[in-house]
Amino acid sequence: MSSTAVDATPAPADKTPRTERGRRTRRALLDAAAAEFGERGFHDASVSGITRRAGVALGSFYTYFNSKDALFRALVSDMSGRVRDEVAPAVRGAPPGVPAERAGLAAFLAFVREHKEIYRIIDESEFVDPDSFRRHYATTAVRIEARLRSAAALGEIRADAGEVHAWAIMGMNVFLGLRYGVWAEDGDVEVVADAAADLLCRGLAAR
Amino acid sequence: MSSTAVDATPAPADKTPRTERGRRTRRALLDAAAAEFGERGFHDASVSGITRRAGVALGSFYTYFNSKDALFRALVSDMSGRVRDEVAPAVRGAPPGVPAERAGLAAFLAFVREHKEIYRIIDESEFVDPDSFRRHYATTAVRIEARLRSAAALGEIRADAGEVHAWAIMGMNVFLGLRYGVWAEDGDVEVVADAAADLLCRGLAAR
Protein backbone atom coordinates (compact mmCIF):
# COMPACT_ATOMS: atom_id res chain seq x y z
CA MET A 1 0.00 0.00 0.00
CA SER A 2 1.49 3.34 -1.01
CA SER A 3 2.07 6.25 1.33
CA THR A 4 -0.94 7.95 -0.29
CA ALA A 5 -3.33 5.34 1.12
CA VAL A 6 -5.77 6.74 3.65
CA ASP A 7 -5.61 6.27 7.37
CA ALA A 8 -7.71 3.14 7.91
CA THR A 9 -8.79 4.04 11.43
CA PRO A 10 -12.59 3.82 11.48
CA ALA A 11 -14.42 6.96 12.57
CA PRO A 12 -15.65 6.49 16.14
CA ALA A 13 -19.28 5.48 16.06
CA ASP A 14 -20.17 8.59 18.04
CA LYS A 15 -19.43 10.80 15.00
CA THR A 16 -22.73 9.63 13.51
CA PRO A 17 -25.02 12.66 13.89
CA ARG A 18 -27.88 12.15 16.33
CA THR A 19 -29.95 15.16 15.27
CA GLU A 20 -31.63 16.17 12.04
CA ARG A 21 -29.52 19.33 11.98
CA GLY A 22 -26.38 17.21 12.39
CA ARG A 23 -27.45 14.93 9.54
CA ARG A 24 -27.99 17.97 7.30
CA THR A 25 -24.52 19.31 8.11
CA ARG A 26 -22.92 15.94 7.41
CA ARG A 27 -24.82 15.79 4.10
CA ALA A 28 -23.65 19.31 3.20
CA LEU A 29 -20.04 18.28 3.92
CA LEU A 30 -20.37 15.17 1.74
CA ASP A 31 -21.85 17.21 -1.14
CA ALA A 32 -19.12 19.83 -0.80
CA ALA A 33 -16.52 17.05 -0.71
CA ALA A 34 -17.91 15.56 -3.94
CA ALA A 35 -17.46 18.94 -5.65
CA GLU A 36 -14.01 19.62 -4.13
CA PHE A 37 -12.53 16.13 -4.70
CA GLY A 38 -14.19 15.96 -8.14
CA GLU A 39 -12.67 19.27 -9.28
CA ARG A 40 -9.28 19.23 -7.55
CA GLY A 41 -8.56 15.56 -6.86
CA PHE A 42 -7.77 14.10 -3.44
CA HIS A 43 -4.30 15.55 -2.97
CA ASP A 44 -5.12 19.14 -3.92
CA ALA A 45 -8.45 19.15 -2.09
CA SER A 46 -8.43 20.72 1.38
CA VAL A 47 -10.65 20.47 4.43
CA SER A 48 -10.89 24.29 4.51
CA GLY A 49 -12.00 24.33 0.84
CA ILE A 50 -14.67 21.76 1.68
CA THR A 51 -16.01 23.55 4.76
CA ARG A 52 -16.05 26.83 2.80
CA ARG A 53 -18.13 25.22 0.03
CA ALA A 54 -20.44 23.68 2.62
CA GLY A 55 -20.82 26.93 4.58
CA VAL A 56 -19.69 25.11 7.72
CA ALA A 57 -17.17 26.44 10.24
CA LEU A 58 -13.76 24.76 9.90
CA GLY A 59 -13.81 23.81 13.57
CA SER A 60 -17.11 21.94 13.16
CA PHE A 61 -15.61 19.64 10.52
CA TYR A 62 -14.03 17.40 13.15
CA THR A 63 -17.39 16.88 14.82
CA TYR A 64 -18.27 14.85 11.72
CA PHE A 65 -15.04 13.41 10.30
CA ASN A 66 -11.61 12.65 11.75
CA SER A 67 -9.62 13.74 8.71
CA LYS A 68 -9.68 14.44 4.96
CA ASP A 69 -8.93 10.73 4.53
CA ALA A 70 -11.94 9.69 6.62
CA LEU A 71 -14.17 12.08 4.67
CA PHE A 72 -12.95 10.66 1.34
CA ARG A 73 -13.68 7.13 2.54
CA ALA A 74 -17.16 8.17 3.68
CA LEU A 75 -17.75 9.90 0.34
CA VAL A 76 -16.90 6.80 -1.72
CA SER A 77 -19.27 4.75 0.43
CA ASP A 78 -21.94 7.46 0.11
CA MET A 79 -21.60 7.68 -3.70
CA SER A 80 -21.65 3.90 -4.06
CA GLY A 81 -24.87 3.88 -2.02
CA ARG A 82 -26.40 6.74 -4.00
CA VAL A 83 -25.83 4.95 -7.32
CA ARG A 84 -27.36 1.81 -5.83
CA ASP A 85 -30.37 3.75 -4.49
CA GLU A 86 -30.82 5.62 -7.78
CA VAL A 87 -30.75 2.47 -9.88
CA ALA A 88 -32.75 0.18 -7.56
CA PRO A 89 -36.26 1.66 -8.07
CA ALA A 90 -35.77 1.72 -11.87
CA VAL A 91 -34.72 -1.93 -11.80
CA ARG A 92 -37.61 -2.94 -9.52
CA GLY A 93 -40.08 -1.08 -11.73
CA ALA A 94 -39.23 -3.16 -14.83
CA PRO A 95 -39.84 -6.84 -15.60
CA PRO A 96 -36.93 -9.08 -14.45
CA GLY A 97 -34.15 -9.91 -16.90
CA VAL A 98 -33.14 -7.67 -19.78
CA PRO A 99 -35.85 -5.01 -19.18
CA ALA A 100 -34.60 -4.59 -15.59
CA GLU A 101 -30.97 -4.28 -16.75
CA ARG A 102 -32.04 -1.78 -19.41
CA ALA A 103 -33.88 0.33 -16.84
CA GLY A 104 -30.89 0.17 -14.50
CA LEU A 105 -28.52 1.38 -17.22
CA ALA A 106 -30.82 4.25 -18.25
CA ALA A 107 -31.11 5.37 -14.61
CA PHE A 108 -27.33 5.08 -14.18
CA LEU A 109 -26.61 7.16 -17.32
CA ALA A 110 -29.03 9.88 -16.19
CA PHE A 111 -27.42 9.91 -12.72
CA VAL A 112 -23.91 10.13 -14.18
CA ARG A 113 -24.83 13.13 -16.34
CA GLU A 114 -25.93 14.96 -13.19
CA HIS A 115 -22.98 13.72 -11.09
CA LYS A 116 -20.01 13.42 -13.44
CA GLU A 117 -17.65 13.75 -10.46
CA ILE A 118 -18.55 10.23 -9.37
CA TYR A 119 -16.17 8.77 -11.94
CA ARG A 120 -13.19 10.76 -10.77
CA ILE A 121 -13.92 9.97 -7.12
CA ILE A 122 -14.49 6.23 -7.54
CA ASP A 123 -11.51 5.99 -9.90
CA GLU A 124 -9.23 7.92 -7.54
CA SER A 125 -10.25 5.62 -4.67
CA GLU A 126 -8.18 2.91 -6.39
CA PHE A 127 -5.13 4.91 -5.29
CA VAL A 128 -6.33 6.80 -2.22
CA ASP A 129 -8.39 4.07 -0.56
CA PRO A 130 -8.05 0.72 -2.39
CA ASP A 131 -10.44 -1.12 -0.05
CA SER A 132 -13.27 1.26 -0.91
CA PHE A 133 -12.56 0.86 -4.65
CA ARG A 134 -12.69 -2.89 -4.42
CA ARG A 135 -15.78 -2.89 -2.20
CA HIS A 136 -17.67 -0.63 -4.64
CA TYR A 137 -17.19 -2.93 -7.64
CA ALA A 138 -17.41 -6.20 -5.71
CA THR A 139 -20.76 -5.28 -4.13
CA THR A 140 -22.12 -3.88 -7.40
CA ALA A 141 -21.24 -7.12 -9.21
CA VAL A 142 -22.81 -9.25 -6.47
CA ARG A 143 -26.02 -7.20 -6.77
CA ILE A 144 -26.17 -7.61 -10.56
CA GLU A 145 -25.44 -11.34 -10.27
CA ALA A 146 -28.26 -11.77 -7.73
CA ARG A 147 -30.68 -10.03 -10.14
CA LEU A 148 -29.56 -12.25 -13.02
CA ARG A 149 -29.93 -15.43 -10.96
CA SER A 150 -33.45 -14.43 -9.90
CA ALA A 151 -34.41 -13.70 -13.50
CA ALA A 152 -32.87 -17.02 -14.59
CA ALA A 153 -34.84 -18.90 -11.92
CA LEU A 154 -37.99 -17.32 -13.36
CA GLY A 155 -36.99 -18.51 -16.84
CA GLU A 156 -36.71 -14.91 -18.08
CA ILE A 157 -33.09 -15.27 -19.13
CA ARG A 158 -30.62 -18.09 -19.75
CA ALA A 159 -30.33 -20.54 -16.87
CA ASP A 160 -26.53 -20.29 -16.65
CA ALA A 161 -26.39 -16.52 -16.06
CA GLY A 162 -23.81 -15.88 -13.36
CA GLU A 163 -20.70 -14.04 -12.29
CA VAL A 164 -19.09 -13.59 -15.70
CA HIS A 165 -22.32 -12.11 -17.06
CA ALA A 166 -22.61 -9.79 -14.06
CA TRP A 167 -19.07 -8.45 -14.52
CA ALA A 168 -19.64 -8.09 -18.27
CA ILE A 169 -22.80 -6.03 -17.66
CA MET A 170 -21.11 -3.90 -14.99
CA GLY A 171 -18.19 -3.15 -17.33
CA MET A 172 -20.55 -2.31 -20.16
CA ASN A 173 -22.48 0.10 -17.92
CA VAL A 174 -19.35 1.77 -16.52
CA PHE A 175 -17.87 2.38 -19.97
CA LEU A 176 -21.14 3.52 -21.55
CA GLY A 177 -21.40 5.93 -18.59
CA LEU A 178 -17.87 7.18 -19.23
CA ARG A 179 -18.51 7.72 -22.96
CA TYR A 180 -22.10 8.99 -22.96
CA GLY A 181 -22.31 10.48 -19.48
CA VAL A 182 -18.93 11.94 -18.53
CA TRP A 183 -17.04 12.59 -21.78
CA ALA A 184 -19.94 13.83 -23.88
CA GLU A 185 -23.71 13.86 -23.82
CA ASP A 186 -24.13 13.39 -27.58
CA GLY A 187 -26.17 10.21 -27.28
CA ASP A 188 -29.76 10.15 -25.99
CA VAL A 189 -29.81 8.11 -22.77
CA GLU A 190 -32.79 6.06 -23.93
CA VAL A 191 -31.20 5.31 -27.32
CA VAL A 192 -27.96 4.15 -25.69
CA ALA A 193 -29.91 2.03 -23.19
CA ASP A 194 -31.99 0.52 -26.00
CA ALA A 195 -28.88 -0.45 -27.97
CA ALA A 196 -27.26 -2.00 -24.90
CA ALA A 197 -30.46 -3.86 -23.97
CA ASP A 198 -30.83 -5.17 -27.49
CA LEU A 199 -27.23 -6.40 -27.32
CA LEU A 200 -28.01 -8.12 -24.00
CA CYS A 201 -31.23 -9.51 -25.39
CA ARG A 202 -29.97 -11.18 -28.53
CA GLY A 203 -26.26 -10.52 -28.83
CA LEU A 204 -24.55 -9.51 -32.04
CA ALA A 205 -26.27 -12.13 -34.20
CA ALA A 206 -27.15 -11.04 -37.74
CA ARG A 207 -30.92 -10.84 -38.16
CA MET B 1 -5.97 20.33 -14.57
CA SER B 2 -4.58 19.55 -11.13
CA SER B 3 -1.04 20.30 -10.03
CA THR B 4 -0.32 16.57 -10.31
CA ALA B 5 -0.77 16.63 -14.10
CA VAL B 6 2.38 15.91 -16.04
CA ASP B 7 4.46 18.41 -17.91
CA ALA B 8 2.97 18.27 -21.42
CA THR B 9 6.18 19.29 -23.21
CA PRO B 10 6.80 16.66 -25.86
CA ALA B 11 10.18 14.92 -25.71
CA PRO B 12 12.44 16.34 -28.40
CA ALA B 13 12.43 14.03 -31.40
CA ASP B 14 16.18 13.52 -31.00
CA LYS B 15 15.58 11.47 -27.84
CA THR B 16 14.45 8.58 -30.06
CA PRO B 17 17.35 6.12 -29.93
CA ARG B 18 19.19 5.68 -33.23
CA THR B 19 21.08 2.52 -32.32
CA GLU B 20 20.02 -0.99 -31.38
CA ARG B 21 21.83 -0.58 -28.06
CA GLY B 22 19.94 2.66 -27.43
CA ARG B 23 16.63 1.00 -28.22
CA ARG B 24 17.44 -1.80 -25.76
CA THR B 25 18.24 0.71 -23.02
CA ARG B 26 15.01 2.64 -23.68
CA ARG B 27 13.11 -0.68 -23.52
CA ALA B 28 14.81 -1.58 -20.23
CA LEU B 29 13.80 1.81 -18.78
CA LEU B 30 10.18 1.33 -19.88
CA ASP B 31 10.04 -2.16 -18.34
CA ALA B 32 11.61 -0.91 -15.11
CA ALA B 33 9.14 2.00 -15.11
CA ALA B 34 6.21 -0.43 -15.47
CA ALA B 35 7.42 -2.30 -12.38
CA GLU B 36 8.20 0.87 -10.37
CA PHE B 37 5.01 2.79 -11.23
CA GLY B 38 2.95 -0.39 -10.89
CA GLU B 39 4.28 -1.13 -7.39
CA ARG B 40 4.71 2.35 -5.96
CA GLY B 41 2.37 4.56 -7.97
CA PHE B 42 3.40 7.70 -9.86
CA HIS B 43 4.04 9.98 -6.91
CA ASP B 44 6.17 7.57 -4.88
CA ALA B 45 8.09 6.25 -7.88
CA SER B 46 11.51 7.80 -8.49
CA VAL B 47 13.80 8.12 -11.47
CA SER B 48 16.64 6.68 -9.38
CA GLY B 49 14.48 3.67 -8.46
CA ILE B 50 13.72 3.12 -12.15
CA THR B 51 17.33 3.38 -13.33
CA ARG B 52 18.41 1.05 -10.51
CA ARG B 53 15.84 -1.56 -11.59
CA ALA B 54 16.91 -1.14 -15.22
CA GLY B 55 20.63 -1.37 -14.41
CA VAL B 56 21.17 1.95 -16.17
CA ALA B 57 23.28 4.83 -14.82
CA LEU B 58 21.13 7.65 -13.44
CA GLY B 59 22.91 10.16 -15.69
CA SER B 60 21.96 8.17 -18.79
CA PHE B 61 18.25 8.49 -18.00
CA TYR B 62 18.05 11.98 -19.48
CA THR B 63 19.45 10.73 -22.76
CA TYR B 64 16.13 8.94 -23.17
CA PHE B 65 13.49 10.93 -21.26
CA ASN B 66 13.20 14.54 -20.10
CA SER B 67 11.56 13.74 -16.76
CA LYS B 68 9.60 11.22 -14.71
CA ASP B 69 6.48 12.80 -16.24
CA ALA B 70 7.73 12.23 -19.78
CA LEU B 71 8.63 8.62 -18.95
CA PHE B 72 5.15 8.01 -17.50
CA ARG B 73 3.56 9.43 -20.65
CA ALA B 74 5.78 7.24 -22.84
CA LEU B 75 4.92 4.21 -20.70
CA VAL B 76 1.14 4.65 -21.08
CA SER B 77 1.58 4.95 -24.84
CA ASP B 78 3.87 1.89 -24.83
CA MET B 79 1.43 -0.22 -22.76
CA SER B 80 -1.51 0.82 -24.90
CA GLY B 81 0.48 -0.27 -27.97
CA ARG B 82 1.54 -3.54 -26.36
CA VAL B 83 -2.07 -4.50 -25.58
CA ARG B 84 -3.02 -3.64 -29.15
CA ASP B 85 -0.12 -5.68 -30.57
CA GLU B 86 -0.87 -8.62 -28.27
CA VAL B 87 -4.54 -8.74 -29.18
CA ALA B 88 -4.25 -8.00 -32.90
CA PRO B 89 -2.79 -11.35 -34.11
CA ALA B 90 -5.36 -13.30 -32.06
CA VAL B 91 -8.17 -11.24 -33.57
CA ARG B 92 -6.79 -11.60 -37.12
CA GLY B 93 -6.41 -15.35 -36.65
CA ALA B 94 -10.13 -15.87 -35.96
CA PRO B 95 -13.18 -15.50 -38.23
CA PRO B 96 -14.63 -11.95 -38.16
CA GLY B 97 -17.40 -11.13 -35.71
CA VAL B 98 -17.91 -12.90 -32.39
CA PRO B 99 -15.04 -15.41 -32.84
CA ALA B 100 -12.62 -12.50 -33.40
CA GLU B 101 -13.90 -10.69 -30.28
CA ARG B 102 -13.63 -13.91 -28.29
CA ALA B 103 -10.04 -14.42 -29.41
CA GLY B 104 -9.22 -10.81 -28.57
CA LEU B 105 -10.63 -11.15 -25.06
CA ALA B 106 -8.78 -14.42 -24.40
CA ALA B 107 -5.49 -12.84 -25.55
CA PHE B 108 -6.19 -9.76 -23.41
CA LEU B 109 -6.93 -11.82 -20.27
CA ALA B 110 -3.73 -13.84 -20.75
CA PHE B 111 -1.74 -10.61 -21.22
CA VAL B 112 -3.27 -9.01 -18.11
CA ARG B 113 -2.33 -12.01 -15.96
CA GLU B 114 1.29 -11.56 -16.99
CA HIS B 115 1.18 -7.75 -16.73
CA LYS B 116 -1.18 -6.91 -13.90
CA GLU B 117 0.55 -3.52 -13.48
CA ILE B 118 -1.09 -2.31 -16.68
CA TYR B 119 -4.35 -1.63 -14.81
CA ARG B 120 -2.76 0.53 -12.17
CA ILE B 121 -0.75 2.47 -14.76
CA ILE B 122 -3.61 3.11 -17.21
CA ASP B 123 -5.97 3.92 -14.31
CA GLU B 124 -3.47 6.30 -12.71
CA SER B 125 -3.02 8.09 -16.04
CA GLU B 126 -6.56 9.48 -15.53
CA PHE B 127 -5.00 11.66 -12.82
CA VAL B 128 -1.37 11.99 -13.85
CA ASP B 129 -1.81 12.43 -17.61
CA PRO B 130 -5.51 12.73 -18.57
CA ASP B 131 -4.80 13.06 -22.30
CA SER B 132 -3.07 9.67 -22.35
CA PHE B 133 -5.97 8.09 -20.45
CA ARG B 134 -8.51 9.42 -22.90
CA ARG B 135 -6.40 8.52 -25.92
CA HIS B 136 -5.99 4.93 -24.73
CA TYR B 137 -9.72 4.26 -24.45
CA ALA B 138 -10.77 6.38 -27.42
CA THR B 139 -8.37 4.61 -29.80
CA THR B 140 -9.26 1.17 -28.39
CA ALA B 141 -12.97 1.84 -28.94
CA VAL B 142 -12.37 3.08 -32.49
CA ARG B 143 -10.43 -0.11 -33.23
CA ILE B 144 -13.21 -2.36 -31.88
CA GLU B 145 -15.86 -0.37 -33.77
CA ALA B 146 -13.91 -0.72 -37.03
CA ARG B 147 -13.75 -4.51 -36.51
CA LEU B 148 -17.48 -4.68 -35.81
CA ARG B 149 -18.33 -2.60 -38.88
CA SER B 150 -16.20 -4.85 -41.10
CA ALA B 151 -17.86 -7.95 -39.68
CA ALA B 152 -21.29 -6.35 -40.16
CA ALA B 153 -20.46 -5.51 -43.78
CA LEU B 154 -19.63 -9.20 -44.29
CA GLY B 155 -23.00 -10.17 -42.77
CA GLU B 156 -21.28 -11.97 -39.87
CA ILE B 157 -22.98 -9.83 -37.20
CA ARG B 158 -25.94 -7.47 -37.00
CA ALA B 159 -25.86 -4.67 -39.57
CA ASP B 160 -26.28 -1.87 -37.00
CA ALA B 161 -23.22 -2.75 -34.91
CA GLY B 162 -21.50 0.52 -34.04
CA GLU B 163 -20.08 2.77 -31.36
CA VAL B 164 -22.36 1.73 -28.48
CA HIS B 165 -21.54 -1.93 -29.12
CA ALA B 166 -17.81 -1.14 -29.27
CA TRP B 167 -17.88 0.68 -25.90
CA ALA B 168 -19.98 -2.11 -24.40
CA ILE B 169 -17.44 -4.73 -25.52
CA MET B 170 -14.49 -2.64 -24.31
CA GLY B 171 -16.09 -2.19 -20.89
CA MET B 172 -16.87 -5.88 -20.68
CA ASN B 173 -13.27 -6.77 -21.51
CA VAL B 174 -11.76 -4.25 -19.07
CA PHE B 175 -13.90 -5.46 -16.16
CA LEU B 176 -13.46 -9.16 -16.93
CA GLY B 177 -9.72 -8.40 -17.00
CA LEU B 178 -9.97 -6.68 -13.62
CA ARG B 179 -11.91 -9.56 -12.06
CA TYR B 180 -10.25 -12.60 -13.66
CA GLY B 181 -6.83 -11.17 -14.46
CA VAL B 182 -5.85 -8.66 -11.76
CA TRP B 183 -7.93 -9.47 -8.67
CA ALA B 184 -7.82 -13.26 -8.91
CA GLU B 185 -6.99 -15.95 -11.41
CA ASP B 186 -9.72 -18.34 -10.29
CA GLY B 187 -11.40 -18.55 -13.68
CA ASP B 188 -9.88 -20.34 -16.67
CA VAL B 189 -9.19 -17.73 -19.38
CA GLU B 190 -10.83 -19.88 -22.05
CA VAL B 191 -13.94 -20.52 -19.93
CA VAL B 192 -14.36 -16.80 -19.21
CA ALA B 193 -13.82 -15.96 -22.90
CA ASP B 194 -16.35 -18.64 -23.91
CA ALA B 195 -18.99 -17.24 -21.56
CA ALA B 196 -18.42 -13.69 -22.80
CA ALA B 197 -18.48 -14.81 -26.45
CA ASP B 198 -21.68 -16.73 -25.90
CA LEU B 199 -23.19 -13.59 -24.34
CA LEU B 200 -22.09 -11.57 -27.36
CA CYS B 201 -23.34 -14.24 -29.72
CA ARG B 202 -26.88 -14.63 -28.48
CA GLY B 203 -27.37 -12.37 -25.49
CA LEU B 204 -29.12 -13.41 -22.30
CA ALA B 205 -32.08 -15.03 -24.02
CA ALA B 206 -33.45 -18.17 -22.40
CA ARG B 207 -32.79 -21.18 -24.62
From TrEMBL, chains A, B:
PROSITE patterns in the record: HTH_TETR_1, HTH_TETR_2
InterPro entries the record matches: DNA-bd_HTH_TetR-type_CS, Homeodomain-like_sf, HTH-type_TetR-like_transc_reg, HTH_TetR, Tet_transcr_reg_TetR-rel_C_sf
Residue intervals of the HTH tetR-type domain: 23-83
Disordered as annotated region, ranges: 1-23
Keywords attached to this entry: DNA-binding, Transcription, Transcription regulation
Entry keyword Transcription regulation: yes
Record feature DNA-binding region, as residue ranges: 46-65
UniProt key word DNA-binding: yes
A GO term, aspect molecular function: transcription cis-regulatory region binding
Protein name per the record: AcrR family transcriptional regulator
Source organism of this protein record: Sphingomonas jinjuensis
